[in-house]
């Protein structure tokens, strides 16, 4: 529901929210207040209702009881899934996300009402509509789309790239309340760094679900913890939340234990003296005191299910040698001249933007790709575990984890099969649950168990944390650090990279080489490169027409000139119409109506000035192209 601002102390108020899914309680009398400008991170174990809460706030779902109230007339933005599949350019998909701008521009071309024209142009200035194309291009660039990609059809993109476009559209809308659900899942490290900086500067209200500790430390002002069917609000970032929650739990447990000791003491008195007439009154008094106690619950620890990788047998080093290898697809190299060694104690993270070849290198190491030239040397006994985020799509969703593991372990006893699954948090119930009913995090655990059950000497992990919550990521980090084999890691999670990897390889410019700095230095390098790219793009834009001398460019400029001339003619007609109405009202002495007309006339003249300036620029470009 929406109510007037003066009736509501907060931008968003959730009061006594109760919501069930298939009879299972998700929220029970949960309450939350969000003030304008707060940036909130939603955290909690998988299945506690984080995504559900966002859908309830935006009205996609309705509560079973309770109330969700938003200030009237605020805009709410989420990442939409219904992107077009046609030839619409990426830049136009993003621009269309601002529906107000789009409709105002269309109406400005058709309306003849001077008052309406005045309002339209005032509103377009207020929302900075004429700066929108540059802003949309900047957002798309930050998320990894160059100028050519921005002008390509949306139908050419799939999967994670479409999700980036959807994210760009949500950011471009610049809503009063922006709600993001795992926005970094489909981003590489470079795009994640850009998003992190963008959200740090976001001046409106933000609610974000993220399993990325760095994002939650750098972009939010409050943490809301979904726990025990309720919403617990903490001031500060994620690290501060962890400390304060730990302190709160210690205090709660101490109060509980003290209260239980007091209760036990009173009960002993009651049991001892309730039968004695002289003490019966005191015994009854203590019973009533016990009944009136505001009971403080004992702390129930949130236990994160484990990851336990089997210990591999020792193998001589180097385990893998790449000798002047070229690798790619359909005889077209993606990476060239690879000469690298991998030892059993190596912990290597691959850095580089999406599309540079990180996954290609991992597939080469796993044996899923063969070299186009050069040699890959491996011992015959080498066992390799390979994890890719896309493998979840290949799982047979009609099977259970037990059935899938049994197929891999073949003649092993049932107890051993279940023990292998148990190392990754699967009890008997979950082991016998169909894959289609598992969460994203549970599917990731299943893939990790399937790839490591035979104790591989090296694990190749391509984005293993995308569907894991923060606690599960910490458990995975600990498990990887306990594992004695080699690890090759591709991850956009800087916390995981920093905690696990002791070597970094940079995949860029068609090859892979050791990177001698740490992940923090690489982050700074990414930021610096983005600044250079923006500067270069700006300079390129300024000089663009100096090198365009072909007929295609002239045709384009001629078309642009005619469009501007048509617009000038339309504005001239509107100007004359308004001037005529002003003259009529002046003759009649109806001066009260002239004020609005003068305002409309001023706006039309201002737009004419802008359009005429654009027309003059186009004429200059035509002259340059002709010479």
Automatic annotation (TrEMBL):
Annotated segments matching region Disordered: 532-559
Keywords carried by this UniProt record: ATP-binding, Nucleotide-binding, Repeat
Gene3D superfamilies reported for this sequence: P-loop containing nucleotide triphosphate hydrolases
Highest taxon above the source species: Bacteria
One of the record's GO molecular function terms: ATP hydrolysis activity
PROSITE patterns: ABC_TRANSPORTER_1, ABC_TRANSPORTER_2
Biased composition (Basic and acidic residues): 550-559
Pfam family, one: ABC_tran_Xtn
Domain named ABC transporter: residues: 12-253, 320-534
Its job: Part of an ABC transporter complex. Transmembrane domains (TMD) form a pore in the inner membrane and the ATP-binding domain (NBD) is responsible for energy generation.
Protein name: ABC transporter family protein
Organism listed in the record: Candidatus Jidaibacter acanthamoebae
Biological classification of the source: Bacteria, Pseudomonadati, Pseudomonadota, Alphaproteobacteria, Rickettsiales
């Amino acid at each position: 529901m929406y109510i007037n601002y003066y009736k509501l102390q907060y931008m968003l108020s959730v009061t006594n929210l109760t919501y069930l899914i298939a009879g299972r309680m998700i929220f029970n009398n949960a309450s939350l207040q969000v003030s304008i400008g707060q940036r909130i991170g939603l955290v909690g174990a998988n299945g506690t209702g984080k995504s559900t809460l966002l859908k309830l706030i935006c009205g996609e779902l309705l509560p079973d009881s309770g109330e969700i109230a938003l200030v009237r007339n605020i805009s709410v933005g989420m990442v939409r899934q219904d992107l077009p599949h046609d030839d619409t350019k990426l830049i136009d998909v993003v621009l269309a996300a601002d529906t107000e701008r789009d409709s105002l521009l269309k109406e400005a071309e058709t309306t003849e009402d001077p008052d309406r024209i005045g309002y339209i142009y005032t509103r377009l200035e207020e929302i900075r509509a004429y700066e929108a194309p540059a802003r949309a291009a900047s957002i798309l660039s930050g998320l990894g789309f160059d100028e050519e990609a921005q002008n390509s059809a949306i139908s050419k993109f799939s999967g994670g790239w479409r999700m980036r476009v959807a994210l760009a559209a949500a950011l471009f809308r610049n809503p009063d309340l922006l709600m993001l659900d795992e926005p970094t899942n489909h981003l590489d490290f470079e795009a994640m760094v850009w998003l992190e900086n963008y959200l740090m500067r976001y001046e409106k209200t933000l609610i974000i679900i993220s399993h990325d500790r760095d994002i939650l430390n750098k972009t939010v002002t409050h943490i809301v913890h979904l726990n025990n069917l309720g919403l617990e609000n903490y001031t500060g970032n994620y690290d501060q939340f962890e400390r304060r929650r730990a302190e709160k739990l210690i205090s709660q447990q101490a109060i509980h234990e003290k209260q239980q000791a007091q209760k036990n003491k009173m009960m002993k008195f009651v049991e001892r003296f309730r039968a004695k007439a002289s003490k019966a009154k005191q015994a009854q008094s203590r019973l009533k005191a016990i009944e009136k106690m505001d009971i403080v619950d004992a702390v129930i620890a949130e236990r994160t299910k484990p990851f336990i990788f089997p210990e591999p047998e020792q193998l001589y080093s180097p385990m893998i040698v790449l000798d002047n290898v070229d690798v790619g697809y359909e005889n077209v190299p993606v990476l060239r001249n690879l000469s690298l060694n991998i030892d059993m104690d190596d912990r290597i993270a691959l850095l580089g933007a999406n599309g540079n070849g990180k996954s290609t290198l991992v597939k080469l190491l796993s044996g899923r790709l063969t070299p186009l030239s050069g040699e890959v040397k491996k011992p015959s006994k080498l066992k390799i575990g390979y994890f890719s985020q896309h493998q979840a799509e290949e799982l047979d969703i009609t099977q259970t984890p037990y059935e899938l593991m049994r197929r891999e372990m073949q003649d092993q006893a049932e107890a051993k099969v279940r023990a292998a699954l148990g190392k990754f948090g699967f009890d008997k119930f979950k082991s016998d649950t169909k894959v289609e009913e598992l969460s994203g995090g549970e599917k990731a655990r299943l893939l990790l168990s399937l790839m490591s059950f035979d104790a591989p000497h090296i694990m190749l992990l391509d984005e293993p944390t995308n569907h894991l919550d923060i606690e599960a990521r910490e458990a995975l980090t600990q498990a990887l650090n306990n594992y004695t084999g080699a690890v090759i890691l591709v991850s956009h999670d800087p916390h995981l990279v920093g905690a696990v990897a002791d070597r970094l390889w940079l995949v860029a410019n068609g090859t892979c080489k050791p990177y001698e700095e740490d992940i923090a230095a690489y982050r700074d390098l990414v930021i610096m490169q983005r600044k250079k790219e923006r500067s270069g793009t700006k300079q390129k834009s300024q000089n663009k027409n100096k090198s365009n001398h072909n007929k295609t460019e002239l045709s384009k400029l001629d078309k642009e000139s005619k469009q501007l001339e048509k617009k000038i003619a339309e504005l001239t007609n509107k100007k004359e119409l308004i001037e005529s109405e002003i003259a009529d009202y002046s003759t009649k002495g109806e001066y009260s109506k002239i004020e609005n007309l003068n305002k409309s006339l001023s706006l039309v003249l201002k737009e004419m000035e802008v359009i005429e300036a654009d027309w003059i620029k186009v004429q200059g470009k035509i002259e340059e192209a002709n010479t």
